[in-house]
Amino acid sequence: MMAQFLEIKGRYPDALLFYRMGDFYEMFFDDAEAAASALDIALTKRGQHLGQDIPMCGVPVHSAEGYLLTLIRKGFRVAIAEQMEDPAEAKKRGSKSVVARDVVRLVTPGTLTEESLLEARRHNFLAAWAEVRDTAALAWVDISTGEFRVIPCPISRLSPELARLGPREVVVSETKEADLAGLVSDSGAAMTPLSRGSFDSTGAEKRLCELFDVATLDAFGSFDRAEASAMGAIVDYLDLTQRGKLPLLRPPVKEMPGGSVQIDAATRRNLEITQSLSGGRDGSLIAAIDRTVTAGGARLLERRLSAPSRDLAEIRARLEAVRFLAGEARLAEALRADLRKAPDIDRALSRLALDRGGPRDLAAIRAGLAEAGSIARRLDGDIPARLAGAAKDLVGFGDLVAYLDAALVAEPPLLARDGGFIAAGHNPELDEARQLRDEGRGVIARMQADYITETGIQSLKIKHNNVLGYFIETTATHAEKMLSAPLNETFIHRQTTANQVRFTTVPLSEMETRILNAGNLALEIEKRLYDGLKAMVLDTSVLISQAARALSEIDLTAAFADIARGEDWCEPTVDDSRAFEIEGGRHPVVERALKRTGEPFIANDCLLTSGETPAIWLLTGPNMAGKSTFLRQNALLALLAQAGSFVPARRAHIGLVSQLFSRVGAADDLARGRSTFMVEMVETAAILNQADDRALVILDEIGRGTATYDGLSIAWATLEHLHDVNRTRALFATHYHEMTALAHKLDGVENATVAVKEWEGEVIFLHEVRKGAADRSYGVQVARLAGLPTAVVERAKIVLDALEKGEREGGTRKHTLIDDLPLFSAAPAATARPVKQESQLEDRLSALHPDEMTPLEALAALYELKALTGD
Q1: What is the CATH number that goes with domain 573-776?
Q2: For a FRET experiment, which of 70, 226, 496, 807 has its CA 20 to 30 Å from that of 193?
Q3: What's the whole-model pTM score?
Q4: Please, what's the largest Cα pairwise distance for the chain?
């Protein structure tokens, strides 16, 4: 057995080997030690190899999926070796013969299909990048839904594309492994190198043609050698991991660069589109606006937010559909009620194609297609073209639904081997076998009653197990009677346990044979019928996939309409201009968070339109006042509009945005040896080198990670470059008040500030963005709010006053800081906290308990307080 394990393991050295032994998957040697540690299970030993104990651990087959999920999340790959024959067959070759085993599947992060291993509302993409001479391409597939796409992708575009897709695994040529390791790692995906042969473009094209049963790929579009290479590598990898059982893939779709808004990885991270900065979904844009009610609709929402469209006709068609359902509240709610009952058809179909499905997947397709018909009937009449097209894809499944409804029970089991999923009356042969099986059970019950009468033993039972079959069981006390004449002529002793004695009879053995044959026959018939139903569904898979996409489209449209109606969002005007006019804009995530606390969100305008000249707002104001929120909210409004959603604003006019860039926040990149300032400069450089005149750029505090004058000069030059060279629309937040002078020098730059109010030494943040410049940053006041010790705050005020005085005097006295601020001498004594003056009014107020006062007492107290004020 160990020889067989080592032979199989030798073929999969980079994977943990799940070696099937009866009801367990066992692991040995290094695999056992790694798995035991990762899964927190016991590590034991089994025999010896080369004089050393063999480490061993195992997991039950029936609960293996949970362990697989843990291992995959921890970065392991798992090869599953199943028993390929019955142990009884192996014994026929000799008592020491080993049961034949082989790997039936290689489980990797990008090839998951089981419902328990996947996130229902997120895609699970497997990607491949290929380079052929001077061209390169990225292909990706979700085998759980069948989506298959490819896009031209030079290596300079690989990082943003991986950021957009968020694949779980990326396949690369072994010759490119070293070059791409950093890029793939940054995306959070696992990287899998394949041989150069997997990326051969000629062989790749042949594999694709065989997969889709076509003579040429021209029927699906025009693909260059790099695109064919990337797609072919995916198919080759799927053939390897699925051991020849290829998933049900849709024909490949070629995406063109420029079809969606360019958003790089840093911008996606800063805007928290699908994931918050803390790493989870909570706090992200998608979590705040997701009102879809189907898994397919949620996955479509993620795709739309990750890649907002640049096709004006497409955007307007989406908005038209949302507008229609936003105005038809009753229809929208009826559609959402139907959609809630629609299972995940795409993934059920994929599991059936890979032979990992069961009767429950057939029932899911039945239920989904039945709801599709109901939804299509609701979408009748004068409706927008986009909804009409989706409704058209939902019809034509009446016969299939009726057949599945007649064939399947209402609640079928998960696995076909469990039986009991074919409805009574569907197949006469099955009904006959079941009748014999069920009548046999009735006969067993009657036989038990007869034996009780014959023996007089009321506790006598007829039971069944897989070893003995049917047997008669009684207590040891009564066994003596059955072993004595005349009962011993009828009852044949079979087994004695600690407390029970078991017997059989000739009639009971004969009945057992009849029942077992009937039961096995019924199960075989059900399995045959299951295969027929599965084939019927797969023959219609193309149309079913179209229906699944249509359901997702309707769900997302209804979800956008629901949030537009419920949260008072407006329809944006999206055109081919350079306009960016937002009135009463709100940040959807922050507003949602504030609603939970009962606080209002302060809406703000953003008018970047300035004729043909660049439109840039230079935003000043204190920390904590909401500058970053204002910057991000406007970027998100543009993203939502081009994703096809209404936006949180009173009015929005947005000229098509080609690129979205965000440089907000700061963090070290210790793994690459980059300081906060270096990260800031790298991200700023990427913006200045790429942004075109249709881009929307938001920049926050450029240059703050270095010396004051260095930072000011970098920020100054950056703003000038955006204005003169990039000629883009931008929001530029800064604490360098000197930069406000640029508004008088550059035609397209305007000053704006976040308003604050001072009251008795306190700073009140109004969160209102107004035209004009801030006079100072209020940093010391914010520091006090953060809880800095009073002594530190008071000392900071003294330093600030001296610095501002030196600035006003022109900085001519070089000794000012040293002489006037003894920074390097002993620290001054801490400023004493002001002694609170006694107040008779406050004392009287603190003594009042309104909940315990009558109205008359409260009125009297009010007069008393008024008298204390002296009025």
Answers
A1: 3.40.50.300
A2: 70
A3: 0.83
A4: 127
